[in-house]
Specification:
Chain lengths: 292, 691
């Protein structure tokens, strides 16, 4: 099954199961969790069911197009179910079945893997789903986001699209995968991997990126002060991506990492606060009463 | 008689938690039944990562009625002068809802007391369990819990079902929004429907039919047998690592062992890396040939039958991809000389407020010099200094960045690659070992010394920040590190005073003198407690013997251990009791005067017993010294014991507590001298030996 067929099938399956299908975000993100459709919507009391395909960038994972499995940009298919359904695991197994996985003849395991994103002030409990030893999905019960306890909690299912494709296609090299209609992954992505690996590891101009990080952070903080949490969040995402490039360039010391992470976490917290107050003005009053 | 079947069905719990939860459930059910005086015949427990089963047989349907005698006030105060019940008795009766007629007298060791008999109605077993189950479930503890539904009750993973049947009858309970039912799940992939259960037999049969082998031992047996037979096919044998075996047993309800292979060219990677990647990353078990060489084959355990080799084939692909990553790291890391990375450590923070790893490696360099000197290993100094300088460099390599469990090992391997001698790379390789007391023995001297220094520095550094540890919380591994230091010292027989090394480690942290002293005390206290703990709990040495030797303020750990061993041998022999009596006598006398210790002055002797004792003491001094030097503690004690008749004569005929001060002091000085010799072995007065 081609990469695009997987995406189409997953969209179809989750649409049939009550999700709205949205597009991935158009700002670089490290994971589908960072997309506003997840970051904001898991907060507060409102139910939410969404599924989207999100290209995700991890500069440090680039291998110049030489490694058969690692790429600096991969594709995630993300599902958020809020509140958590009682049959989340079976729904998930059904989605694999829908993709044509013969689940009785493969070793599908839910292995402990608790997810945490310190820069988003978020963590959850769950598993990596292994299929014959290959990690194909992250399955997480969100507990906290933006530094806040969640109620109701959300279930996040994140499929690794390339992993699924390798598995379904029996290919051991990612570049041999069929993207769709005869075009290969290599045709579409190889040069991009090569160039971005060079950029991320060698060519990225460190002083410029440091300036950019600072400017994005300041812009985000300013927008927080103005109550514009959506654009503020965009700039936080930009900070995060620039941070990742600097990190791939080995330009961040551990001490500095702690500081920069704390800055991003604080911004994420402030942005989440604004959102919660906006959608649920009562919350602020209740909180004040409790504190008082 | 009734039997009780319970199953808690959950979504996959972490394998490491499964046995803990099983044991907690077992204890909790046992306690709940005991509290209500419900006896049982037998109890069986079993767990997988998806279910916890308890099966109890021979329960009565109801607990027997019983009565208990409650003792109240003594008869003396129960009545007033005119024989009427007084306040204490009236209050007692009131509190127990009984009348005066019910009260009776009972004889106790303390005299005659008033008592009443209180009757308890035996509870119905069904009712007891009904009340107990939600309480038991909410009392379970986990390393990490989560909430998932409106109940907001934290649990390890979402609960799928609660089965509770007493003699075929459902016990209706609710916990975390889940109501008990007769339904359980079969295998997560192979069973289609929920199973309805009406008895234990039914449960076991249906589970087996639905691809769940509930018994842990049964699953273990299958895994071991299949692993051996697959290894046989490859003309080798296999001994499964206990941790991996445990993982396989709890992680698979229907275990099927498979084998796979990978391209031979990856065998050029160091074996440590291959093993780490297989075990920790992919839960696959490496295989070795008859000569102990790693093979390009592995085994793993699947939760479904693998008739089409899907599972084996998939794992083969995955492990090759992982090795491809390993090769990438191994190649890129080696393009730079690891010895040149020391300066990069300045960017790696050791801990907030404790500087960088560069600072740490500088402290370690100074500390190993001291360790070599203290342990009489000066010849190792030069190499160990270099090893200390380089031992943290692998923290900035990509391999360790990606796989922190390989720290130390990678540093050693990379140094070996650049041609450093074994006296340098080996200490680096092993310096994180051991990671606690119960690990395989330490055998490399240089590695052991570096390990001690690294851990002492950790301990001093973390304690200097005011970090505390407790039996349940040791996030910085302080206790574990201290245990490891003790282990290295004992394994390698390092005879030195650890307090001196601690003194140096504290000084290197660059605090002012007052803080340094306080820190040093904290660290030595910690070691005394750890030592006491290890000797009693792990080495099984008697509590009183540990106390008798550990009272020494110095931390001559190796010697302390030798002493405990020798004294353990002495206990139970006829010599121990006279020694204890003698030492008590010596101590009593020497304590009765609190003046400073003075030298014995033979010219002040008046009685012949004084002179004889002093002469004998003088004569045996060289022997005693030699024994002490050779750490022959039993011989020292024997030497003193030989003098016992003379000492007894002295005590019987000489008035130690003479009126004249200088006479008294002189006699006490002799007594103290003997006490001091004994104290170099142990404080025998603390040893408890029945006559």
């Amino acid at each position: 099954m081609s990469v695009q067929d997987i995406i189409l099938k997953l969209q179809e399956f989750w649409s049939l199961n009550g999700c709205i299908i949205t597009s991935g975000y158009d700002v670089e993100v490290g994971a589908g969790t960072m997309t506003p459709d997840t970051f904001f919507r898991v907060l507060g009391p409102r139910p939410w069911k969404v599924a989207y395909w999100q290209p995700s960038r991890r500069p440090d994972d680039g291998r110049y197009g030489d490694n058969p499995n690692r790429v600096q940009k991969h594709n995630q298919f993300q599902v958020i179910l809020k509140p958590i359904p009682t049959d989340g695991q079976s729904l998930y197994l059904n989605s694999l079945y829908h993709l044509g996985v013969d689940i009785r003849n493969h070793d599908i395991k839910f292995d402990e893997d608790n997810w945490a994103s310190p820069s988003l002030g978020a963590w959850g409990v769950g598993w990596q789903v292994m299929c014959d030893g290959l990690e194909i999905t992250q399955f997480t019960y969100f507990q906290q986001a933006g530094g806040k306890e969640l109620n109701p909690n959300s279930l996040e299912i994140t499929y690794g699209v390339e992993r699924l494709a390798s598995f379904l296609d029996g290919k051991s090299n990612i570049y041999d995968l069929e993207w769709g209609n005869k075009a290969t992954y290599n045709d579409l992505r190889h040069e991009e991997e090569r160039q971005f690996s060079i950029y991320n590891f060698e060519a990225a101009h460190i002083p410029m990126l440091r300036d950019a990080f600072r400017m994005y952070r300041e812009e985000s903080a300013r927008l927080v002060d103005d109550g514009l949490y959506l654009p503020a969040y965009d700039y936080l995402l930009k900070c995060s991506h620039v941070f990742n490039i600097l990190d791939a360039r080995k330009a961040i010391s551990v001490a500095e990492r702690t500081t920069l992470m704390a800055e991003m976490r604080d911004l994420a917290g402030a942005i989440a606060d604004l959102y919660v107050k906006r959608i649920h003005p009562q919350a602020e009053v209740e909180e004040d009463n409790q504190n008082g | 008689m009734a039997d009780f079947l319970f199953e808690l069905g959950v979504e996959e719990v972490p394998v490491s938690e499964a046995p803990r939860i099983r044991d907690q459930l077992k204890d909790a059910f046992q306690t709940a039944l005991e509290e209500e005086h419900l006896p049982m015949n037998a109890m069986e427990v079993a767990a997988t990562n998806r279910r916890f089963m308890i099966y109890i047989t021979g329960l009565p349907k109801q607990a027997q009625d019983r009565s208990e005698l409650l003792t109240g006030p003594s008869k003396r105060i129960a009545y007033d002068d005119s024989g009427r019940p007084a306040v204490p008795l009236l209050k007692f009766l009131e509190a127990n809802g009984t009348a005066l007629d019910d009260a009776r007298e009972v004889e106790t060791p303390k005299g005659i007391y008033m008592a009443v008999e209180r009757r308890f109605k035996g509870q119905k077993t069904h009712r007891v369990l009904e009340k107990a189950i939600p309480r038991i479930l909410s009392g379970l503890t986990f390393r990490k819990a989560m909430v998932w539904n409106d109940s907001r009750i934290p649990f390890i993973r979402p609960i799928r079902n609660i089965l509770a049947i007493l003699d075929g009858e459902l016990i209706a309970v609710e916990f975390a929004g889940i109501r008990s039912s007769l339904e359980v799940d079969g295998h997560p992939l192979l069973a289609e429907e929920k199973l309805e259960i009406n008895s234990y037999r039914d449960y076991i049969e249906k589970l087996h039919k639905c691809f769940v082998i509930p018994g842990e031992a049964e699953r273990e047996k299958i895994i071991l047998q299949d692993a051996i037979s697959l290894a046989n096919d490859l003309e080798t044998t296999v001994e499964l690592d206990p941790e991996m075996l445990q993982y396989y047993v709890f992680n698979n309800e229907y275990p099927v062992v498979f084998s796979g292979e990978f391209d031979r060219r990856y065998l050029t990677l160091p074996q440590e890396i291959i093993a780490e990647f297989m075990r920790n990353e992919k839960k696959l078990h490496p295989l070795h040939d008859g000569a102990g060489r790693m093979m390009n084959h592995f085994i793993g355990v699947s939760n479904v039958p693998d008739e089409h080799r899907n599972v084996a084939g998939g794992n083969e692909k995955v492990i090759q991809a992982t090795f491809e990553d390993a090769v990438f790291f191994w190649e890129t890391d080696r393009t730079e000389d690891i010895s040149g990375l020391t300066e990069n450590l300045s960017t790696v923070v050791f801990h907030k407020g404790l500087g960088s790893f560069l600072d740490k490696s500088k402290r370690l360099q100074a500390l190993v010099v001291e360790a070599c000197r203290l342990t009489g290993n000066e010849t190792l100094t030069k190499d160990l200094e270099q090893a200390a300088e380089l031992c943290k460099n692998d923290l900035v390599t990509r391999m360790v960045g990606e796989f922190p469990a390989l720290q130390g090992i990678m540093g050693g391997l990379y140094l070996r690659e650049t041609g450093k001698p074994e006296s340098i790379w080996r200490p680096v390789y092993v310096h994180y070992e051991p990671r606690g007391f119960t690990q395989k023995p330490v055998s490399h001297l240089g590695g052991g010394l570096l390990s001690i220094c690294d851990k002492i520095d950790n301990i001093c550094a973390f304690l200097s920040l005011g970090i505390r540890t407790s039996s349940s919380s040791d996030p910085y591994g302080i206790r574990r590190d201290a245990n490891a230091v003790i282990k290295v010292i004992l394994d390698l027989g390092l005879d030195f005073d650890l307090a001196e090394l601690i003194h140096q480690a504290c000084a290197l942290l660059g605090k002012d003198k007052g803080k340094q002293d306080a820190l040093q005390r904290k660290v030595t206290d910690l070691f005394h407690i750890r030592l006491d703990n290890i000797m009693r709990d792990m080495l099984g040495i008697r509590h009183d013997i540990v106390e008798a030797v550990i009272s020494d303020a110095a931390l001559h750990i190796y010697r302390l251990h030798l002493k405990t061993l020798e004294i353990s041998e002495m206990t139970g022999t006829p010599s121990i009791l006279p020694l204890i009596i003698l030492h008590k006598r010596l101590k009593n006398i020497s304590r009765s005067d609190d003046s400073e210790m003075g030298e014995v002055n033979p010219e002040r002797f008046q009685d012949s017993e004084e002179t004889i004792l002093y002469d004998i003491l003088k004569q045996s001094e060289p022997t005693i010294h030699r024994h002490l030097e050779l750490r022959e503690y039993r011989a020292v004690a024997a030497e003193i014991l030989q003098m016992k008749p003379v000492i007894d004569e002295f005590f019987d005929n000489v008035l130690v507590m003479a009126k004249e001060e200088d006479l008294r002091r002189n006699r006490i000085a002799i007594v103290r001298k003997i006490d001091q010799i004994l104290m170099q072995v142990a404080d025998f007065t603390r040893i408890v030996e029945s006559e």
